[in-house]
Amino acid sequence: MQARFHDGLTARSLPVEVTVEAHRLSFDADGETHVWSLADLQIEDLGDRLRLSHPKVGDGRLTLDAAEWRASGGGAGLKAERRHRKREARLVVGLAVAGLAIAAVVFIGMPAASGPLARATPPNIEERMGRNFEAQLSIAFRPCDPSAGQTALAAFGQRLEAAADTPFDIRVRAVQAPMVNAFALPGGAVMVTDDLIALAKTPDELAAVIAHEAAHVERRHVMQAVWRSLGLGLVLDAVVGGGSGAGQQAVLLAGSVADLRFSRSAESEADVRGQQLLEANGLSSQGMAPFFQRIAAKGEGAEAGAVRELMSSHPDSLRRARESAARAKPGAPAFTPAEWDAIRMACQKPKRTLRQILKNPLGG
Ligand SMILES: [Zn+2]
């Protein structure tokens, strides 16, 4: 397209050939190639002619035919470019807002918001999430084979479920892992490690730990913890791009941000409620205190890291032991002697050490 170029420094007016591309126009003048971005063009309408200027060249300007400019697609390109710029600006604002949201979630928002969010999470979503967790966890926490012991644990879970106010199936199972641990997953799965079973001296003790976990499920503490730690990832996902999982990965990588443990008040609530669930079944709630005492003693030893969930209480274990002892009521044992024997035999395969698991996660 023909145009005349005034460099803004001299009175000269040079004929130039202007090429318009998607985001820019270019022309040669005095052996120099000028490239102007369309988005930054200033356009002065002179009737059938246009005067274009660009911040790059100060008072320099191009004068060209308005009809030719439109035909060249310059106008359309300009509009598209400006829309693009606007989108970018919106994205920048969006990122800034998301950044603030992330900060709020981390420092103020999510811990406070996680309770209502957990209660508002549809149970079927929580269940689906739980199944994903379970699949991933089964690498490190391998379910022990079906056995009379597993059956007894599952039946006990159903008794707790019947007393609990929960939409979830409370599915209790023994898993194999080189650590003392019991934990609940979203959606009602409760895992007890073989080491924890071995640490329990009586059926009442094991029943108390499982009831405590069932209470976490019922009160939706599990989902709350998930919201607290994954909330940040969900926000990041919303920014980075829906469903890409990039945000989740960022959070998992920044593992220190995530903290799946429960608050002290959630632990105390689960203690109280766990004992109620036992009592509602006519079972003894006296096993909690001695087990906490044992955990506290163990927590001071070499295996402190291994008693993690239960230890999220520590150094509260002794206080919790005292409080649960004060609330405890006598009742029937949760398991018959035959069931108790079967439970203690539930995971009899040779143990894999943590080192073996890390080296060969799926291996048998
Ligand atoms: Zn707990």
From TrEMBL:
Keywords: Hydrolase, Membrane, Metal-binding, Metalloprotease, Protease, Transmembrane, Transmembrane helix, Zinc. Its cofactor is Zn(2+). It comes from the Bacteria. Residues 150-323 form the Peptidase M48 domain. Binds 1 zinc ion per subunit. CDD domains: M48C_Oma1_like. PANTHER family: METALLOENDOPEPTIDASE OMA1 (PTHR22726), METALLOENDOPEPTIDASE OMA1, MITOCHONDRIAL (PTHR22726:SF1). This is M48 family metallopeptidase.
